[in-house]
Write a structure and sequence with these properties.
31% helix, Ubiquitin-like (UB roll), alpha+beta, five-stranded mixed sheet, elongated, single chain, two-stranded antiparallel sheet, 2 domains, 9 helices, Fumarate Reductase Iron-sulfur Protein, Chain B, domain 2
């Protein structure tokens, strides 16, 4: 077999889609230090790949101690929400080429929740707020003998808020939540909206009373951070305003 010439090797390198990218990751390990520190990693990666692919390269090839959550890698599970270049995003849906790879790509944990290690935060307060708004269908009477029918128009009323994947990108982008962890947060309100406006449900009034609490829907300051951060394109701020309107008019 002929050995490739230096010229051909240079041509192949020039045609390679790979570029050198610097990942600047905010590291935190409570077993080592109480302070977080930034650490840079340089990797070769195709700019059409995702930030999650870059994190995998770092963990698998450079530093196995790097800690982050991920599961489906297709924007469905919502487990890899993190701050990338100062914005909440899903690492599995963020392409390298879309965030200016010529500069360091900063990656850090989402805000407002306690960081446990590196990019992993304690999600329990977030999920507790979700549980508190009763995110399930409530009906009266005996078990039905057939499905509970609903018109296409009634289904469309809450279609947008069924898209939530509980990634916490919206809640952890909220300035109110950053300063007061007792606030229910956008995600909990979105999931309450999904059932408040469901024509089959019979607990809308109860959910409204839960959200009428001092830590409920009235804490929203309509900054639209949540809407901008949602990876599923949910009109989060609009849903919150609709819940506020329902509280005032008791019509839903």
């Amino acid at each position: 077999m002929a050995t490739p010439t230096l010229e051909k090797m240079e041509e192949a390198a020039a045609a390679s889609p790979y570029i050198t990218v610097t990942f600047r990751i905010r590291r935190f390990n409570p077993e080592i230090s109480d302070e977080a520190q930034w650490q840079d990693f340089q990797i070769e990666i195709d700019p059409k790949e995702r930030v999650l692919d870059g994190l995998h390269k770092i963990k698998w090839d450079l530093d196995g101690t790097l800690t982050f959550r991920r599961s489906c890698a297709h924007g469905i599970c919502g487990s890899d929400a993190m701050r990338i270049n100062g914005k909440n995003r899903l690492a599995c849906k963020t392409l390298i080429k879309d965030i200016n790879p010529e500069k360091p790509i900063t990656v850090e944990a989402i805000k407002g929740l306690t960081v446990m290690k590196d990019l992993v935060v304690d999600m329990e307060p977030f999920f507790q707020a979700y549980r508190d708004v009763m995110p399930f269908l409530v009906t009266k009477g005996n078990e039905p003998t057939r499905e509970r029918l609903q018109s296409a128009e009634d289904r469309e009323r809450f279609d947008d808020t069924t898209k939530c994947i509980l990634c916490a990108a919206c809640t952890s982008s909220c300035p109110v939540f950053w300063n007061d962890g007792q606030y229910f947060g956008p995600a909990a309100i979105v999931n309450a909206h999904r059932f408040i406006f469901d024509s089959r449900d019979e607990a809308g009034e109860q959910r409204l009373e839960i959200l009428n609490d001092k830590d409920g829907v009235w804490r929203c300051r309509t900054t639209f951070n949540c809407t901008d951060a949602c990876p599923r394109g949910i009109e989060v701020t609009k849903a919150i305003q609709e819940v506020k309107r329902a509280l005032i008019t008791r019509r839903y």
